[in-house]
Amino acid sequence: MEKESYTNLTLGPVLFNWAPECWRDFYFRMADEAPVDTICVGEVVCSKRAQFFAPYLTDVVERLLSAGKEVVLSTLALIMNEREIALVREIVENTDFLVEANDISAAALLKGRPHAIGPFVNIYNEDTLAYMVHNGARRVTLPVELSASSIATLTKSVPAELEVMVFGRLPLAISARCYHARCHNLSRDNCQFVCEKNPDGLDVDTLNGEPFLAINGVQTMSHTYCNLIGDLSALLDLGIGRFRLSPHSGDMARVAKAFRAVLESRMAPEEANTIITEETGSMPISNGYFHGRTGATFEGIPADQTEAR
Amino acid sequence: MAVTVCKLKTMSKKLELVCPAGTPASLRAAVDAGADVVYLGFRDVTNARNFPGLNFSRDELRAGLDYAHALDRQIYVTINTFPKAGNSGPWRKAIDDASVLGADAIILADIGLIDYAASMHPKLRRHLSVQASASNTEAIRFYQEAFGIQRVILPRVLTVAEITELNRKIAIETEVFVFGGLCVMAEGRCALSSYVTGKSPNISGVCSPASHVRYEEEEGRLVSRLGGYIINTFSEGEKAGYPTLCKGRFVANGQAHYLFEEPTSLNAIHILPELMAAGVTALKIEGRQRGRAYISQVVAAFRYAVDAAADELTVSREDLIAVTEGQRKTSGAYEKTWR
What we know:
heterodimer; A: TIM Barrel; 12 strands; disordered C terminus; B: TIM Barrel
């Protein structure tokens, strides 16, 4: 499967509210053990959380750099007031690292300077992509909704580094309202940070008990884990050279090794998937968006984990 | 009434009333009931209310423009989905046609399209759709400076205090939703519908589409499903709502409830003076899928309330009965406690 050009594995930002020490130790372990090239650090989901891991940020970044990782600073996806803008501005103005914009406001602050754009900015077509590249975007992680045919058009359109999310619960929506707080009968202002109870999100089932979605504070995610391990070859053929793993509480070093092995043709996707399944606790997987279908569905190996519908 | 938006800003601080129309009859009803502006979309995937049997042909737009302009009202054309990669033709054509036919403004969300409109039709007013999710000063300034956007329709995530602060810091007009269906997620940033149906507002212009809805009797209860997933169940005699995904009942943390939002809709008619004081220019009523009678009632009630607010008159609850009866209403994100 290995193509001529080098393929890059990225570890996306931790989207969940992990205890600060766990957060730090996770990145320490990734620095030492995960065969990934790029690691994103920073709060994306809720501005109230950033304070917790801030004391460890310097240590984490140093550890990642000394392990030879490229560090990208991710920023908030939904920015609603001056306090939140100030959080983004502080990151943008005080770093030489590549900053990842997850809202247009961050891309505006980064105008004229090389930056990355995360999957929360709506880049659905080549015209918008070209504009954002003109604005200074060097790297773009595409929205999760995009199908293979859209991806194919985008890779051919402009010379930007395009990245696709290939592992983890899909970030599907973001809101001003905190659902984690709401289902604990709390308000967002007085949330008691109940989102820390669920390191992979809080399961949401339908009324007949069917697993459906997951709540991560103000973010709503898929119940299924996006898993494109069987589609890496197709993605490479489409011209994608960057692959994003979204952190979960399973051993992400092992997940990364499985993806790396498949990208380097040292392991069959089926075998790699067995490893991934162990690390996710056999959660159902999906790749429907990539195949131009319903996002929750799975197409390809292995049949026993498909969402039957 | 017979003033342009530009004059409106300087001459009077009366709020502009922007009303929906999904059919020519609704357009006339909205104008007759006192809409300053009617907004509508073409009958295709280029707008975020791409429902069967709804929206306007080019000829219908032409007739609608004649009707509205004769009475000094305006028409805004909504072109607010995101073009599929490699296929921007229909969206560009929509912009070209809106311009040629003489629309008063176009409402856009996609950056590539806004760029196209700004370079090809620089004289046509450009408004930023709620689907663009510009919820802060820097984002709004970006669209203004890069593309000459003249008005932003604010996402339904902001409190009145946040809107006030925004208006102090930005140089363009703001338009806010005051009535109708309420998205609880940041608009333009929600893929819940496509996760279970393959169709999303951003790509297909629909949310929780009827084509993927099923109602069934199961053990004496009416069950509503979307894309196969149960969205709600109703006991006999209970009013069965449409299974919009984010208005469903789900189980989380051991309790079954309306996790995202109750089956309620937005009504901010009682806070128009606050919205005026917040520096808002225009009020938007949601509901291009609604019938003519509904449009007439709601628009008339808001016409009355907008005029009363401009004259600093108090509005009694009875005067607004048409829009306060029936379904449950909320003032949504305008109140901080909503969060």
